[in-house]
Amino acid sequence: MGVSKNSPDLSDPGSLSDASGGELLGPPGVPKKTLLLLFLLPAVLFFVSFAIGRYPIPLPTVLKIFASRVLPLSPDWESSMETVLFRLRLPRIAAAMLVGAGLSLSGAAFQGVFRNPLVSPYLLGVASGAGFGAALAILLSESLFLLQFSALLFGILAVALTFGIGRFYRGAPTLVLILGGVIVGAFFSSLTSLIKFVADPYEKLPAIVFWLMGSMARVTPENLRAVGPFIGGGTFLLLLLGWRLNILSMGDEEAKAMGVNAGKERAMILTICTLVTASSVCLSGIIGWVGLVIPHVGRILVGPDHRRLLPACLALGSAFLLLVDNCARAATAMEIPLGILTALVGAPLFAWMLSRKKVGW
Domain 85-355, what fold? Predict the structure, then answer.
């Protein structure tokens, strides 16, 4: 099957249009007010989040402290406020926004590649592998660096095993990858359960359980600088590949007709998503529902065109997880694990979208 005369020029991502001149997979247009609100939301939440916490700082004071970094303002606030803002809250807020954006973009990419609305970034076993790596590190050591390195290493190893199963067995590529992810995920989940069984029930076991439920409590400027570039870099690459996701979401036959090697494109996108997801998990633990629900909300607002959907997921995902993290650290005296809150919000929201037939890829 050759490329027709009306096929788009793949060297120009902006030329993806059908024979009648209509934009491929794109909605007629997104209202400017929707786009403005979409990207103002994380910006507003970013500054508001600095005022939230057990050590409250008035929002005007927060703004003055930030302004003093570029303007010659005389400080009329305690020096401890600057320490709280820049040493404690800034890394946590930045991590929440990075992880939320990374998981949301990875979820949208996975749903487009697999053409399945029920797919999440953890499909290929990265969460189970990273969970095992973190549990093993907590059992053997108290080093935060070792915990994050082990989580990242085993998360990538789990996905590598999934791809290995896909190469070993012949069949539909996407189906084999999904089944391989189920196999690898079950294997590492059983290993994690074994570690929890042998762990000290007074010290090690609570730490393992709390990490597996997800939290930003352990984020420091040092580990954010170490892991953040992987999430940020992978997110940037996914934003550039939106037009390729449009083609892959139409199926392998259509991609082949357009002269695109679907297998190579799929492997490249899944590799980037794996790096982003594994880095997110090693920074914050396992946080569910973000990569599953946020892409559907983005499609409701801007449509299925990945060139619009991915930036929308970036804004929505970062704002959503930042809002949830604010609730986690301020709602009660003890910090609530993020995985609990995202499930409490995500499950009813997803059920509502199902009832309104708003779920699709």
Answer: ABC transporter involved in vitamin B12 uptake, BtuC (1.10.3470)
